[in-house]
Every structure is written in C-alpha cells, then in structure tokens.
Design brief:
Length: about 110
C-alpha cells in the first residue's frame, strides 16, 4: 500500500505553516471578520426587536392590571348602588361588555 502511493521513501505530508506560529498572518476576509460583523449586526437587530416587543408586553400587562382594578372597583360601586336603590343590573352588564371589548382590543 505504501509503495502504491510512493510513501515508502519519505513522509507523506509536512506542515509548512500552522495557526500556532506567531508569524502566520491570516487576513480578516479569510478568518471570518466580515461574517462575525454581520452576525453581530443581526444579533443587535434581533435584540432591539426583542426589547421593543418586551416593552409592549409589559405595557399591555400593566394596562390589563389597571383595567381589572377599575372593573373590580366599578363592580363594587355597582353592588353598593344596587343595594341602595335595588336596581342597577343593566349597568353591570354595560361595564362587563365595556371591559371585555377593551380587553379584546388590548390583547396581543
């Protein structure tokens, strides 16, 4: 087998330069400098999009919390008014419909 490839007399391969040599210079276009810059830019854009979506999500959750608190406060007020005047069931349905419409509008 060695005779077939002419390897019986000398070594088959000899390294000329290795990456470990200090004088071995590799230009940026060869070692991936441009690719790493593109990846960095792409990751930056994705991070900015993520931050924007997260900020919107936090805002929507806060608005939802505020609306739930308002609904609870309005329901308590409605119950108090209903006890005092023995009515107000129509107003409760009105508040429920308004809350549900607003919730649908703000849901993501």
């Amino acid at each position: 087998m060695m005779r077939k490839f002419g390897l019986e007399k000398s070594e088959a391969h000899q390294d000329q330069n290795t990456l470990l040599e200090p004088n071995n210079f590799i230009p940026s276009w060869e070692n991936g400098g441009e690719e790493s810059a593109e990846v960095s830019n792409t990751l930056l854009k994705l991070r900015l999009e993520y931050d924007d979506i997260r900020a919107k999500s936090i805002y929507m959750k806060e608005q939802s919390r505020i609306m739930k608190a308002e609904k609870k406060r309005n329901n308590e007020l409605l119950k108090r008014v209903a006890r005092e005047f023995s009515g107000g069931n129509e107003e409760g349905e009105k508040f429920d419909n308004l809350f549900n419409d607003t919730k649908k509008m703000h849901d993501i």
